Structures are given as C-alpha cells and as structure tokens.
Amino acid sequence: MLENPKFRRIVLKISGEVLVGRGEYGISSEVIREVSREIKELTERGVQVAVVVGGGNLFRGVDMSSTGMDRASADYMGMLATVINSLALQDSLERMEVTTRLQSAITMRQVAEPYIRRRAIRHLEKGRVVLFAAGTGNPYFSTDTAASLRATEIGADVLLKATKVDGVYDSDPVRNRRAVKFDRLSYIDVLNKNLRVMDATAISLCMDNGLPIIVFNGRKRGNIVRAATGEKVGTIISSTG
Length: 241
Known about the structure:
The protein is 39% helix and 19% strand. By secondary structure, the chain is of the alpha/beta class. Strands 4-3-5-2-1-6-10-11-9 form a 9-stranded mixed β-sheet, with helices on both faces.
C-alpha cells in the first residue's frame, strides 16, 4: 500500500510528448485515461491538484518559428494546442466523476474560465482539479514557465514534471547510452550545467520562491502517485540539491 501524500497542493506539469503514447503525434486515449486515474487517486487522498499540459504533441511554436514563421504567432498557436490537450484531459477526468475547472490565460469563454488566481485557489480548496491552459497568455514563454508561475501563485508545495524520460541526465539519454542520471540537483547546478530540463526562466522562478521540482517519467504507470506520496522517483531539484 502506498504511503499517504507528502504534499498538500501540487502542480502537475505534463509534457505533451507524454500524451502521444506509442505514437508520434496526437493524443493517446489510453494515456489520457491512465493519467486521469492517477489524478483521481490523488484527489481521493486529499491532494489538491492543478495541472498544466504542454502542447508539443500537437504543435511546437519554437520549431515553427525556426522555419520562418513569426515567433509570436507560432507561440499563440502552441497555446491553443495546450487548450486542446486540457479539454481532452478534462473530459477524461469528468467521465471518472472528478470535478474539474479549466482556466485559460487566453479568453475563450465558451470552453474555459479566465485565469483568476483567487478563483483557482478556491476551486482547489473545494477539491476540484484545476487545469491551467494557454500557458501564461504571452508569447516567448514556455509551458514550463507557466507551470512554475502558476505553482508559485497558488502556493503549491511542489512542481511535478511528468516527461518522457525518468529524470535529469548530464546529456541526452536517448542519444548517449552513457548519460548519467542525477538523483538530486540544486537550481544553480541546473543553470550552470545548462541541463535544459526546464528553461532558465522556469528554473529561476522556482529558485527565487523555493519551489521544489520533481522530474520523472510520466509514461510509467503509477509514477504520478509515487512522486506525490514522496517515494523516490526521478530527480529532485531544490535549493540544496
């Protein structure tokens, strides 16, 4: 039996690449259901859960801007991709009888509430899962930065980053079989070593506010619950490392 949750309030950042599953593009219904089951388990344990989903499985603004598209336009398109992913996750959670609220940094009243910090906190206090979509609402900022910002704003205890690898390595483990995994890192280590697990703005924001980050494999079943209950999983990034 798993331990009780270690954290009272969390922000779960899910990489868009996690939602692809075994494919190369789009949304895997199987992955969405599994993520939803784990989120539901956490809410049943009393954890207040907010979620930020990336959009890289549908559209990557940085990639498009590198081919000549206007960067701001490309980033706005990426924000809309996060809304699509958030709607898919919301639908899956609601089918499991988990009450949710979707808040968007870009106004779209037909599908989401506007992001309002106090309202988001109130939803969490009532046991609702809050999904933060459309990043920060501004171009040139990643969804990692959005997750760090929202986590700081709502007073989260930790930022859980679910990605396609099982932690932070000194180099790309896909390309380098000898890549070394870190169990713990300090914010300064991440910045100085240019590890690129998150962009510098996101890391700096967490560092300035003492917000710990746990990076882990979001494709492995049960890892979201394990991370939230304090089990050793992935890489912990904090002030002391």
